Amino acid sequence: MSQESQTASQEGSPASQGRIDDDLEPSIESTPEAHTAIETRDLEVFYGEERALYPTSVRLPEKQVTAIIGPSGCGKSTFLRCLNRMNDLIDVARIEGEVLFKGKNVYDDDVDPVALRRRIGMVFQKPNPFPKSIYDNVAYGLKIQGFDGDLDARVEESLRRAALWNEVKDQLGSSGLDLSGGQQQRLCIARAIAPDPEVVLMDEPASALDPIATSKVEDLITELAEDYTVIVVTHNMQQAARISDKTAVFLTGGRLVEFGDTDRIFSNPEHQRVEDYITGKFG
Ligand SMILES: Nc1ncnc2c1ncn2[C@@H]1O[C@H](COP(=O)(O)OP(=O)(O)OP(=O)(O)O)[C@@H](O)[C@H]1O
């Protein structure tokens, strides 16, 4: 525990009594540039007049799982959505600063957000398959982008990587909506990885699932990190500890307070408020 944290504990943990810590100094462990998938530089977000994200500068490592945790409303989804410009779809959202992907700011005028989202895919909290066949759910985006390779092979590969192939290989023509919730979510993961993105963003991908389906999705996330950079928002602290290599902790109205190795953050956080959050004292 840091000296600052010890002092806070000894004094009855004033930081845990709900005050707004405007003075919280971020503790950001830097990822080497060579191993960075996405870097944000002073990234800020406002919804109308309301600030949702304070200037955030962090490097997210490639081919690892980064968990984004923090209490409700602290800006986790807002941050995640900036990374592939999903906030563009929200009229009142205003974004400042930079998101560098392969050294290029994704907010530059010449970046096509649709093409960007093929390289930085996204999976949402609630499974949202298209009302189409299992096959077409995976093939649809590829067809639209004019994929000229072996479509059947790509669909199979994507379903295999999403750990769903064995369960659906004999019913590829059935509706995706007829699958169980957990299978639907793995279908959405297959759909997201079909264009072979480099990064997969996941916004609470297991929170609508039962424990068995959650466990399958967690295993899958760990496996996906062998090929992809995975950035996952979760409310579930144990899940973050189980599946992630790095953890980013957001607190107090949109501030990234700590970023670093998951093991270190869960065993020895820098800030008292982070410790209070991860031990369940608030949030
Ligand atoms: N489309 C929107 N329009 C206006 N305000 C928004 C919008 N989306 C989010 N906000 C506000 O921005 C802040 C951050 O929201 P965000 O959803 O990013 O937080 P979160 O940490 O992901 O929350 P949760 O864990 O509850 O999903 C909140 O105050 C929220 O009310």
From TrEMBL:
GO biological process terms, semicolon-separated: phosphate ion transmembrane transport
Cross-referenced InterPro entries: AAA+_ATPase, ABC_transporter-like_ATP-bd, ABC_transporter-like_CS, P-loop_NTPase, PstB-like
Keywords in alphabetical order: ATP-binding, Cell membrane, Membrane, Nucleotide-binding, Transport
Domain ABC transporter, residue spans: 38-278
Renumbered residue ranges of the record's region Disordered: 1-35
Regions of compositional bias (Polar residues) in chain numbering: 1-16
Molecular-function GO term, any one: ATP hydrolysis activity
Keyword Repeat: no
UniProt entry tagged with the keyword Magnesium: no
Domain of life from the UniProt record: Archaea
GO cellular component, one term: membrane
NCBIfam families attached to this UniProt entry: 3a0107s01c2
PANTHER family found in the cross-reference section: ABC TRANSPORTER I FAMILY MEMBER 17
UniProt name for this protein: Phosphate transport system ATP-binding protein
Gene: pstB
